Amino acid sequence: MSEIRLKSIKNIRDFEGIVTADGKNLKRGHFIRSSALYDLSRDDRRILFDEFRVRTVIDLRTEAEVEQKPDSYPKGVTYINLPLIDEATAGITHEQRQKRDLSAVPDMRDLYRLVVTNEKTIANFREIFRLILSSYEKGAVLWHCTEGKDRCGLVSALFLSLLGVERDEVTANYLLTNLYNKWKARKYYCLILLYKWNRQLAKKVRGMFIADESYLDAALDAIDEQFGGIESYLKNQLGITDEQRKRLREFYLTD
Fold this sequence. Notes:
alpha/beta; Protein-Tyrosine Phosphatase, Chain A; six-stranded mixed sheet; 12 helices
């Protein structure tokens, strides 16, 4: 991991230092994963868009999340919103959303399986990777969701798999989010216990804020079971060609 130190965003990093199965190293600064770019400070905007030369931002949040807290970015940056999940897809009704019904929150393992198998989200994954693979030579590409954990974590897992990173390393990168989010997970766990006196609900809510290996395993196992493995998924579901993969590796990997 190569942490990018910003004041207004905590969970943001690139993939420098990760090693592929064939011993190649990922370079610094070309691909970045993060939490939302809402209310960026002036210094942080300069670091991201001038020093790191971010030129493409892929926002994985729902339209409602974007409307509530829109990203901050300068002119000349390509921004696109490609949601990977919404309340309706997750089975959360309008009434439950309006009442902020915490019991409506789905099991995170089920949610991860849904994201990688749902036809609509697969189509968005396909477009996300089309953008990644057509934009990186123009400047750095950044993708994010709200916390930089679930939706961002799944895109990052597929991206690292595309580069030939082994599953253990993919999981290790995913779990790094807990360096930033554990305190928040603990806070909400305690608040639910204090106000609801419901330990099961508190654990469910805490699970929304942590990266858990079993969540990612659920997604990757679903890919294995339904699509014949990650290689088949990348090629046949996301439409990534051998030539695109070769060009990406030549650009981004070093000995």
